[in-house]
Amino acid sequence: MTDSPSQGHSRRKFLKGAALAGAGAATAGMARANDPAISVQPWMQELGDGVDAAPYGSPSPFEADVKRRNVEWLTADPVSSVNFTPLHDLDGIITPNGLCFERHHGGVAQVDPAEHRLMINGLVDRPLVFTMEDLKRFPRENHVYFLECAANSGMEWRGAQLNGCQFTHGMIHNVMYTGVPLRLILQEAGIKTSGKWILPEGADASGMTRSIPMEKALDDCLVALKMNGEALRPEQGYPVRLVVPGWEGNMWVKWLRRIEVGDQPWHHREETSKYTDLLADGQARRFTWEMDAKSVITNPSPQAPLTHGPGPTVLTGVAWSGRGTIPRVDVSIDGGKSWAEARMDGPSFDKSMHRFYYDFNWDGRPLLLQSRAHDSTGYVQPTKDQLREIRGVNSIYHNNGIQTWAVDEKGNAENVEVS
Ligand SMILES: Nc1nc2c(c(=O)[nH]1)N[C@H]1C(S)=C(S)[C@@H](COP(=O)(O)O)O[C@H]1N2
Ligand SMILES: [Mo]
């Protein structure tokens, strides 16, 4: 602590030096030779808060606009609704816990971990009931995975509608989970040879259930206790949720209380009347679990216009695939006529969000921005028209078509479609 005043002193010296250097050097229009704000500011002239001011920290008050938002006409009742991750305000690949979008069918259950249990029953040798402490005695693993609601971009099937990537693409989050492989818990109960499916059930008022094939349950599903290092947030299923990597968010049962093992799927509500894809001919595709490769440019975008003039411009966005990694993203600034390969940056994990950048010199003319993801299986993200040709426009779910933002001379962006 004793050295902090001198640290402050040397920082001021450094800033002064930097300002002088800037005055002489030719910049590419990214800074000014002189700026009065470089002088001593009020916060340099008084002591700041002590270490006891915020036992659990929160963002700067200047970041108050960085928040989850909902779409009013989608929110008939907040206990059965959705809000959206502010993708345009984030960078890197990790979604901070307080900004992870929420989707609840019966509100946020407030679960006391000491009273909460996880039961394994059905076609098992030994039906078992675990406390949360019991779960902590299994070997656990850490993995970064995206969770995308199958309805993400669902409002865009018939045309461009919502103005902002938060609303068109914000039903996704990407966090590091700490959890126990579901395989280990099922093996503890002993799966009978007739056990081919599982039915996870939530402890919330909606009693959420989904049928999941045993193959997936034994592969990479996790019974997760932590997100980004700390306990799950109540909104995300505290104290325990199922993680079903790469598969639609609806299957990631929160407030997990029971897993039944069965010999066939249960055909419950969320896999019949909901989360099925109605095709043009009136038939519905069922069990479309995997999330196809998808990407979106987050900056610039309607909520994040270009505030500088022509010159060096950083375009960025995110891409993900339920089938693997994203080795490549292409970017177009002319509505898909020509494409350039974006620069991938940050860690590349299986079934996780990836970050891409495209650093270019904006000439100040209008832009039609698009991004196109390639995943590690060779699959390429389709255009919205290509999707509609095969799937019609009746569906809500699994819209992974290419998004277009129109940027005008002033730098303002709007959700549009080109054909
Ligand atoms: N118990 C329970 N689990 C649930 C839900 C729910 O309402 N109750 N919603 C599902 C849906 S539709 C989605 S998209 C994800 C959303 O997860 P999140 O709230 O962490 O974003 O949780 C899934 N798991
Ligand atoms: Mo969902």
What does this structure look like?
The structure is a single chain. This protein has 419 residues and is of the alpha+beta class. The protein folds into two domains: 69-285, Sulfite Oxidase, Chain A, domain 2; 294-416, Immunoglobulin-like, CATH 2.60.40.650. It is 12% helix and 26% strand. It is built from six helices and 21 strands. The chain has a five-stranded mixed β-sheet. Strands 3, 4, 7, 8 and 9 form a five-stranded antiparallel β-sheet that branches. It has a five-stranded antiparallel β-sheet with strand order 16-15-19-20-21, with no helix packed on it. A hairpin with a 2-residue loop joins strand 7 and strand 8 (230-231). The longest helix has 21 residues, at 4-24. It is globular. Bound molecules: ligand MTE and molybdenum atom. Molybdenum atom binds next to loops.
Q: What is the CATH top level name of the largest domain?
A: Alpha Beta
Distance from first to last alpha carbon? 61 Å
Bound molecules: the ligand Nc1nc2c(c(=O)[nH]1)N[C@H]1C(S)=C(S)[C@@H](COP(=O)(O)O)O[C@H]1N2, molybdenum atom
CATH 2nd-level architecture of the largest domain: Alpha-Beta Complex
Spatial extent as radius of gyration: 24 Å
Largest sheet: 5 strands, mixed
* Percent range of helical residues: 10-25%
Topology-level CATH name of the largest domain: Sulfite Oxidase, Chain A, domain 2
3D shape: globular
CATH homologous superfamily title of the largest domain: Oxidoreductase, molybdopterin-binding domain
- The tally of domains stands at 2
Strand order of the largest sheet: 2-1-10-5-6
